[in-house]
């Protein structure tokens, strides 16, 4: 594996894994006051497109990273929408 | 441009642009209570790695998308850290 490939893998791991602490915090506290609905709706849709892109290319790394990110981002978006509907900590 | 490439461009645009409403909300309200420090520190570091990766590959799309995302994510992280230090809406 080249140095460039290693940087790519570190980048992918960090940007995917970064959503774990946010999802844990959001699910635990149910507080989504300072989370942007616009961000999470656009991001969830974007990650879904990345997943479709990965499936078309049959690229396991793209599929794997985006399947995890989609699960995390969609969970955060779900709590945000529930709070917006319930008008609680929206 | 193929259908697959179009899906890739839509994906990249959405995941990059999604940080605009979050950065606007965070800078405007200064409220970072429900934002995870772990997420924004790991994400900012990860996007920096993507930028280095793009520079190594001389891939303009990777450089462009990640330079914008880095600016937005770093701005959000900056407000979060300032609030944590000031213990205000941390």
TrEMBL record, chains A, B:
A Pfam short name: PQ-loop
Membrane topology (UniProt): Multi-pass membrane protein
Assigned keywords, A-Z: Membrane, Transmembrane, Transmembrane helix
Major subcellular site: membrane
Record-annotated membrane-spanning stretches: 6-25, 37-56, 62-79
One GO CC annotation: membrane
InterPro entries referenced in this protein's UniProt entry, alphabetically: PQ-loop_rpt (IPR006603), SemiSWEET (IPR047662)
Entry's Gene Ontology molecular function annotations: sugar transmembrane transporter activity
Domain of life, source organism: Bacteria
Subcellular locations according to the entry: Membrane
Lineage of the species this protein comes from: Bacteria, Pseudomonadati, Pseudomonadota, Gammaproteobacteria, Methylococcales
Native source organism of the sequence: Methylobacter tundripaludum
UniProt name for this protein: MtN3 and saliva related transmembrane protein
Keyword NAD in annotation: no
Keyword Zinc-finger set for record: no
């Amino acid at each position: 594996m080249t140095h460039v490939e290693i940087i790519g893998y570190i980048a992918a791991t960090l940007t995917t894994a970064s959503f774990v602490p946010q999802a844990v915090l959001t699910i635990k506290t149910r507080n989504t006051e300072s989370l942007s609905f616009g961000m999470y709706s656009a991001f969830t849709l974007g990650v879904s497109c990345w997943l479709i892109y990965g499936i078309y290319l049959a690229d396991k790394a793209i599929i794997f990273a985006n399947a995890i990110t989609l699960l995390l981002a969609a969970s955060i978006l779900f709590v945000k929408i529930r709070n917006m509907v319930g008008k609680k900590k929206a």
